[in-house]
Design a protein that fits this description.
Layout: E1 12-15, E2 21-23, E3 28-34, H1 44-61, E4 66-77, H2 88-103, E5 106-117, H3 125-135, H4 139-163, E6 170-171, E7 174-177, E8 180-183, H5 184-193, H6 208-211, E9 216-219, E10 224-227, E11 235-241, E12 263-272, H7 275-290, H8 298-311, E13 318-328, H9 332-347
Antiparallel strand pairs: 1-2, 2-3, 3-5, 3-6, 4-5, 4-12, 7-8, 9-10, 10-11, 11-13, 12-13
Helix pairs in contact: 7-8
Length: 352
Amino acid sequence: HNERPMSTHIPYLRHVSDTVIGLENGSLLSVIKLDGLFFQTEDQAELNMRSVVQNTMIRALGSSRFSLWSTVVRREVETEIGGAFDEPFCELLNRRYMNQLREKRMFTNEIYLTIVRSGMRGALGIGDTVKKLLDRANREVRDQQTREDVTELEELISNITRELQKYGARALGIAYRDKEPYSEPCEFFNTILTCGVPRKMRLPRMGIRNFVGTSRLHFSKRTMQAQAAVDEDSRFGALLSVKEYPPFTGPGMLDGLLQVNHEFILTQSFTIADKPIAQERITRLQRQIQASDEAGSSVEKDIDYALNSLMNQEAVFGFHHLSLLCLSRDLQGVSKSVSELGACLTDMNINW
């Protein structure tokens, strides 16, 4: 039978600069890795303040050119602390401690923020599309525009990294190990495509989409398998998504997931809608509610509040998505992983 290669579903093309990746549709992206915060010991007022700062950071983007993707990769790790001690008591203590550590399941949470810069969306994107068609004939103009776009994205990434310094933010790029170039963005893409299995990736001389994806993917109605070259790197999984959003959201809602004894990949995205388009949609919804049985209810007040927030530059609106890939080392463990991680979402009042 004819099987489509994985590369047909992967949009990444090449490194345009050290930290910027070019996509098939002409978009650009950069990936920022975050160490994170010790949220369990942070004061709630500090977390709320950080949430306001991040909200301001997203508002500053203010254009449908930009999308933000956050990815949390939780995977099991084997911890080993090396060392030898001449003192008999210290040696005994170290040996017993390491034996205790081996019996526990230890996990690490890797947090990434991806910024995608694309063309304008919706009605405002028509002018962009026409300009691209006109510029296609002139290679010099196109190359100059690409250089300007890359510089703009690099400046934006530099600003965001500075604002998120509290989280230990740094942009992923080309890293030299033993004087050999490695691509950190390719390592990130490959980790997602192999369902959380890390692997060092050299800087490719071919297209990225033909380079990443070292596992073979199989799909059934409810589950999937990432089949690796060796069984210990194979993973089974199932995807959860949001059926109905909770009435209120706040910082730390998803922190419960970071304490569950299961591997997963949590992905969220937010694509900004331009102000005129968001205003038109909210106004249309406002008219529909006024003409319905819900006129005068709290729903109408919420819509009025949303419109006021938009007009006063207090908020930006856009399109959000959340998906949770529940992972297991064997097929039998998938249902347990789904039920326990799904219970976490239910505790947060998220219907999945």
